[in-house]
Amino acid sequence: MTILCRKICNFVANLIFQPMSIAKIKDKTFATSISEEQIKQRVKELALRISKDMEGKNPLLIGVLNGSFIFAADLMREMTIPCEISFVKLASYQGITSTGKVHEVLGINEDLTGRTVIIVEDIVDTGRTMRQMIESLGTRHPDSVHICSLFVKPDKLEEPLDIEYAAFKIPNDFIVGYGLDYDQQGRGLKEIYTLVE
Fold first, then answer.
1. Is the dihedral of CA 167, 62, 79, 34 positive or negative?
2. Structure confidence by residue, pLDDT tens digits, 56-79
């Protein structure tokens, strides 16, 4: 058996026999769906792609709190070009359901005039939050605004958004871990867990 065949067999075996973890958060049960290694790999790939696309620029990453704080930090650490970071806090979820109403809680103080801005979001589902944020940032005269999201739910998307940088496209499941929460719990989990029906 060649070395390549052995590597492929080991990779497949790891996928098949990878133990599933269960997390109980309040009244809900979640099971692992994306490993820590997969997340790290995709974040690194995104950071390198952004760094290549933004070569010669000093982009401002704007992390959307609370969910994106781990993703934004890891993404920035993997960037190979100079960049800056700031945060904005928006709220549209209550428990596991989007309220459909977006409230800006904490705004941005930086001057965005002529800046390259990258919105760093944990998850884009309907796209309403992102649409409102892009419109709000547009009034601050940035040179360009880009979207980078850890997760996108294509089947739930209602707004025509150009999401240039997306780590994972997922079904319309409720997930926790790596910054995402269920009723403020579960953000510290290193893997992504999906709600078990």
1. negative
2. 999 999 999 999 999 999 999 999
Note the pTM of the prediction, 2 decimals. Answer: 0.83
Give me 137's structure tokens. 């940032």
Q: Give the pairing of strands 60-65 and 192-195.
A: unpaired
Maximal C-alpha separation, the chain: 61
Q: What distance in Å separates the CA atoms of residue 70 and residue 61, rounded to the nearest whole number?
A: 13
Q: Which amino acid is at 183?
A: D
Q: Which residues contact 173 (CB under 8 A, 6 or more apart)?
A: 33, 194, 195
| Burial of residue 111 (number of CB atoms within 10 Å: 0-12, 13-18, 19+) | exposed
Residues belonging to the active site: 125
Q: How many Cα atoms sit within 13 Å of 162 on the Cβ side?
A: 5
**E strand map for 95-156:** 97-106, 116-124, 144-152
Between CA 68 and CA 51 the distance in angstroms is: 19
What pLDDT, in 10s, does the model give residues 132-151? 889 889 989 999 999 999 99
